[in-house]
Amino acid sequence: MKAAVLGSGSWGTTFAKVLVDSGTETVMWARRSELAETITRRHANPDYLSGVRLPSGLRATSDAAEALDGADLVVLVIPSQTLRENLRGWTKLLPPDATLVSLMKGIELGTAKRMSEVISEVAGAGPDRVAVVSGPNLAREIALEQPTATVVACADVDRGAQVQRACTAPYFRPYTNIDVVGTELGGAVKNVIALACGMAAGMGFGNNTTASLITRGLAETSRLGLALGADPMTFAGLAGLGDLVATCASPLSRNRSFGERLGKGESLEQAQAATHGQVAEGVKSCRSVLDLAERHGVDVPITRVMESVCRGVIGPVDAARLLMSRSTKSE
Ligand SMILES: NC(=O)C1=CN([C@@H]2O[C@H](COP(=O)(O)OP(=O)(O)OC[C@H]3O[C@@H](n4cnc5c(N)ncnc54)[C@H](O)[C@@H]3O)[C@@H](O)[C@H]2O)C=CC1
Ligand SMILES: O=C(CO)COP(=O)(O)O
């Protein structure tokens, strides 16, 4: 089995390490040739995973054709809003029967499409050729080989099992699932809820607030998932509750950290600058998740409020007041 990992940020690099540690021959693609050189020769990616030693068998190149040559698995792991444009450039290079694997957790702005939908559309691949990996997977913890589990979702059971085999490492345990919609939705919406949890923490609120946001966040994710045809059980699993808990609680989360800065009174520009170029997907995906919900007539109050915050229309104090002054209802 040979894999190409397109994207050399924190998750792409970490997942490439998982693949190699699972016995899968892996080549990464990096935008910058200097970074590709550093990964191949120094077995490190200091820009995204400082202090982590990468496997000596892991190679990187800045030539996408070289990375994709003969790949059975093509792993896509770049910021969601850049997928369509990048994939257009890679389509001719994709091996015809390769499984296309999305590691991204976002919804496309404008179209409100999930990443697997964008992949199918741009690459002309049927949904059975597209898999999604999502779960409580904070990159640095995994790069340090701390045990975690994840979900590999694919409509085609055999392809799902192929991806599962390719990424089963001593510290990484993938479960298969056929619910691509629920798995992707869990990953995208939890980033928005993590922004809210971070903001609450930045305002000085404690665990009751976090738990309330996580639980009601899961309720709105499930409502939207049901409207889109997802399996409700997915939201009780690793790609739902699992990822929500990990991301909303961890200082490693870029989304949570972004929200925390806002809660402490920093501006959107200051919070953006503090990401040092790393992607906090929820800041943009809150708009596309809201679009998706509105198209399906689903109420997503936390997402709605966070979209107003991320557009700079309201601040953290108004956001909290708006959520707490909604009409009372049954759970
Ligand atoms: N970091 C994490 O713990 C996890 C991240 N994810 C998801 O994986 C995806 C990628 O995230 P990370 O690797 O963490 O992001 P990152 O910000 O660490 O790295 C992004 C990578 O994409 C590249 N990139 C940026 N703009 C680009 C463009 N216009 N065209 C091509 N490449 C571009 C960067 O050079 C970098 O290699 C996101 O959707 C994220 O939600 C999923 C699970 C865990
Ligand atoms: O998706 C993640 C953990 O599962 C990473 O979250 P952040 O993108 O907020 O860092």
Q: Features of this protein?
A:
single chain, 331 residues, alpha/beta, Rossmann fold, N-(1-d-carboxylethyl)-l-norvaline Dehydrogenase, domain 2, 2 domains, eight-stranded mixed beta sheet, 15 helices, 8 strands, binds 1,4-dihydronicotinamide adenine dinucleotide, binds 1,3-dihydroxyacetonephosphate, cytoplasm
What does this protein look like?
- The chain is about 50% helix and about 10% strand.
- The chain has about 325 residues and is an alpha/beta fold.
- The protein has 15 helices and eight strands.
- Strand 4 (about 75), helix 4 (about 85-90) and strand 5 (about 100) form a beta-alpha-beta unit.
- It folds into two domains: about 1-180, NAD(P)-binding Rossmann-like Domain (Rossmann fold, 3-Layer(aba) Sandwich), CATH 3.40.50; about 190-325, N-(1-d-carboxylethyl)-l-norvaline Dehydrogenase, domain 2.
- 1,3-dihydroxyacetonephosphate binds next to helix 8, helix 10 and helix 11.
- 1,4-dihydronicotinamide adenine dinucleotide binds next to helix 1.
Average pLDDT, all residues: 98
CATH class of the largest domain: Alpha Beta
In CATH terms, what is the fold-level topology of the largest domain? Answer: Rossmann fold
Low-confidence stretches: none
| Helix content range | 40-55%
Beginning-to-end CA distance, first to last residue? 48 Å
What small molecules are bound in this structure? Answer: 1,4-dihydronicotinamide adenine dinucleotide, 1,3-dihydroxyacetonephosphate
Q: Largest sheet, described in full?
A: 8 strands, mixed
Structural class: alpha/beta
Percentage of residues in strands: 5-15%
Number of domains: 2
Radius of gyration: 19 Å
Count of alpha/pi helices: 15
Number of strands: 8
EC number: 1.1.1.94
InterPro entries: 6-PGluconate_DH-like_C_sf (IPR008927), 6PGD_dom2 (IPR013328), G3P_DH_NAD-dep (IPR006168), G3P_DH_NAD-dep_C (IPR006109), G3P_DH_NAD-dep_N (IPR011128), NAD(P)-bd_dom_sf (IPR036291)
Pathway: Membrane lipid metabolism; glycerophospholipid metabolism
GO molecular function: glycerol-3-phosphate dehydrogenase [NAD(P)+] activity
